[in-house]
Amino acid sequence: MSDQITIHVGTIGQGLWRSPDGGGVWQKGRAVGELSVRSLIVFPDDPNRLMAGSDEGLLASSNNGSSWELVDSYEPDRQTWSLAVDPTDANTIFAGGRPGLRRSRDGGHSWDELPVQIVEECPIGTPRTTVVVIDPLNSQRVYAGVEVDGVHKSIDGGDSWVRGNPLGPETFQADIHCMGRASTPAGATTFATSPFGIARSDDEGESWLQHEFAPLTERTQRSYCRAMLVKHDDPNTIFVASGDGIPGTTGAIQRTTDGGATWAPCDLPAAPNSVIYWLASHADAPDVIVAATLYGYVYLSEDGGDSWRKLDKEFGEIRALALSTA
């Protein structure tokens, strides 16, 4: 299975890399300069088409990451921390920046600033829109998670926005790192991660239930959480990337197979050297999961998270991952 996927890695200061055989051979994507990449997305209608958000603007590839070009229509010096493509209309793209949120309706040829009421300053300075989630069953419902300004929601495809209710009373429970949606016959659930763990909402963000993972080291009270993903073919299986801080000294991949009722860390073959920062998968290969530490380790599972192997290639600093099946 792994030789049928391409792993894409976005680094800080080392640009974009890809492995077209699932981690055996690595190639550096031809791009503009030694970029610092914050986000990666594979288009749902074309596995050869990708976008990457960097500190130097937005990049696009039409050949599965072999080469990249700057998107001229996008502000060149705007940090882009998150990207999302409408699963029903690949011309609709969201880009979360530092600050704000933009949308393209024409495949990236032009962009509009969206009216999300994000605070101008927060405890970390200028807020970052770290994640955008489009409901796969209703693309008019869009969520944006912001560091440190909570969850914002649109029910009209991004034309207007409301601030969601707080995840909890602590300031850094509004420090949203990632979000996801899980849909079952019983209804839809929204998830959001923060330094406090993972929170779930069964009522579209009106109320939240917080789950904290046990600390990984004695110096912390709880596990610090970054990325999360819902398994494409099983909404009850969810993965959360965690660690003992940012950047941290160790990390873990937490997994539930019962919708969040119980959790257990995955058995990794080598101890992470920092927080597990990002996770990626693809709908066409749902059992393949890739994970990366902030400090450059890459792990791969081909059986839905039951077993993992650490890839030989190591990077300096990883901030973004993606899988394609081209």
Describe this structure in words.
It contains no helices and 28 strands. The chain has strands at 6-11, 16-19, 27-28, 37-42, 50-54, 57-61, 69-70, 80-86, 89-97, 101-104, 112-113, 128-134, 142-147, 150-154, 162-163, 178-184, 187-194, 197-201, 209-211, 224-230, 238-243, 251-256, 264-265, 276-280, 289-293, 298-301, 309-310, 318-324. With 326 residues, it is mainly beta. A four-stranded antiparallel β-sheet has the order 3-2-1-28, with no helix packed on it. Strands 4-5-6-7 form a four-stranded antiparallel β-sheet, with no helix packed on it.
Question: TL;DR?
Answer:
Helices cover 0% and strands 43% of the residues. It has 326 residues and is an all-beta fold.
Portion of residues in beta strands equals: 35-45%
Largest sheet features: 4 strands, antiparallel
Global shape: globular
How far the N terminus sits from the C terminus, by CA atoms, comes to: 13 Å
Into which percent range does the helicity of residues fall? under 10%
Order of neighbouring strands in the sheet with most strands: 3-2-1-28
Using the CA coordinates, give the radius of gyration. Answer: 18 Å
- The helix-and-strand class reads mainly beta
| Number of helices in the DSSP assignment | 0
